[in-house]
Inverse folding.
């Protein structure tokens, strides 16, 4: 099960990133051109949040099945001294959870705005902040915090 969760979590990382980048692009384009918030824009808003929530569920399941996290939780005082263990035990999960909360709030607020410009603006700000945090919290192969391959 652990290998399947590793693969799914890695795969959905790309889906989250692609959907967020696309949503930020559409929101920025719509905001700066004064476009109408179309049904497609609403679907992008909705599906971006949905994909992020699926990744959250996979991530939570993965978190509690990971031997790294199990070690971190059982040997906290020694594990917290290792930045790699601290990154996956606390930093990654906290930042990702915070990002998904931002995406959820941004999606809900954008849905309730009355004008198209407000919808685009809300989506742009909340999703862009979440995207920046996600970029920081992903263990990229080049990351100085903790690194993993692009695909696992």
């Amino acid at each position: 099960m652990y290998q399947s969760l590793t693969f799914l979590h890695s795969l959905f990382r790309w889906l989250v990133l692609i959907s967020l980048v696309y949503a930020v692009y559409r929101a920025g384009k719509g905001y700066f051109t004064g476009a109408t918030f179309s049904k497609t824009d609403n679907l992008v808003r909705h599906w971006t949040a949905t994909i992020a929530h699926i990744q959250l569920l996979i991530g939570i399941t993965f978190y509690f099945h990971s031997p790294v996290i199990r070690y971190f939780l059982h040997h906290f005082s020694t594990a917290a001294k290792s930045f790699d263990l601290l990154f996956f035990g606390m930093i990654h999960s906290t930042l990702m959870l915070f990002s998904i909360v931002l995406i959820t709030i941004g999606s809900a607020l954008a849905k309730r705005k009355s004008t198209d410009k407000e919808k685009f603006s809300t989506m742009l700000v909340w999703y862009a902040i979440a995207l920046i945090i996600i970029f920081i919290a992903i263990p990229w192969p080049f990351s100085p915090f903790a690194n993993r391959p692009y695909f696992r």
